[in-house]
Structure formats: C-alpha cells, structure tokens
Write a structure and sequence with these properties.
Pfam families: DNAPKcs_CC5 (PF19704)
CATH class: Mainly Alpha
Organism: Adineta steineri
Protein name: DNA-dependent protein kinase catalytic subunit CC5 domain-containing protein
Number of strands: 0
Strand content: under 5%
Largest sheet: none
Shape: globular
Order of helices and strands: HHHHHHHHH
Length: 157
C-alpha cells in the first residue's frame, strides 16, 4: 500500500488502536516503526499520532525502542508529535526511575533517560517557534527543573 491509501488506513487505526491487546507488536510487525524514518512526511505524521495513542499501553522496552527510532527532523507536524511523544516519555521515565532507585537502576533505563532528555534539549533549538516555546515551557515546569536552572535555561535560549 502506498500514498494516500496508506495514510487513510493508518488514520482509521488511530481511533481504535488502544483496543488491541498487543497494539505495539501488531504495528511493529506491520512496519509502522519503519515509517518513522520515511521520507513521506504525511505518512510519518500519521504514524507518530498512532504511536502517541499506544504509549500508555507499551512496555518499558517498547518505549525505549520507539525513542531510539524517533527523529526530531521533518516538517512542523512531525516535530510537534515527536515533541509530544518525547515529553510523555520523559515524564514516564523519570517516574520509572524514581521507583527503580529503590532497587537499582538498569543500564537500559539510564540510556533511555539520557536519550529522551537529549532529544528534548535538541528541540529547544528548533527553527519552529512553536516547538521552541513548547519545549521551553515543558522544561520550565518546577518538577523538571529547579527555578535557578530554569532561569539559566531561559538565558541560554
């Protein structure tokens, strides 16, 4: 399937994707993760929206796999959805690490955290003003940065 018909099929999945028990595995088997590096940004944008819907039902390892594939390049719609996915992942991984500290932090979790953080920091320098402001607002939340760090961030950006 190609072009508009592929986009329409992916859009049809968005509404009900959370009802599949193994949505991530189904999407992966269907090649949706490969679409995330596709040069057709229309298809990539729909795939990003689809992935955003399944984030809460994905495992730690699946989220890490998605994070490693995502790219912050592309047109505005792709960047906006990538930002939303990375923001969700950052909050997820920081909560996960808080719980994991009681036992021991795994190398996967540490790598996951650093990757997501680096990508979010990279989006602070996006050419798109909406992305920059949204990224800055994300980091300015007191649960993510202390007030002094927030002021330093604003001065840098």
């Amino acid at each position: 399937m190609h072009g508009d018909s592929k986009i329409e099929c992916l859009e049809a999945l968005i509404a009900n994707i959370t009802e599949f028990d193994s949505a991530y595995l189904e999407l992966r088997a269907a090649g949706v993760l490969d679409i995330l590096i596709h040069t057709d940004f229309g298809i990539r944008g729909v795939a990003l929206r689809l992935l955003y819907k399944i984030l809460p039902n994905s495992t730690h390892e699946q989220l890490y796999e998605i994070a490693r594939i995502l790219s912050v390049d592309g047109p505005n719609e792709c960047q906006i959805w990538t930002l939303e996915i990375y923001k969700w992942m950052y909050d997820y991984i920081t909560n996960y690490l808080t719980k994991e500290i009681k036992t021991s932090i795994t190398p996967l979790s540490e790598s996951f955290y650093h990757h997501v953080r680096e990508q979010l920091l990279q989006l602070l320098s996006s050419k798109n003003e909406y992305i920059r402001v949204n990224s800055r607002n994300f980091w300015c939340d007191p649960k993510r940065l202390s007030t002094s760090s927030h002021h330093r961030l604003i001065a840098l950006v």
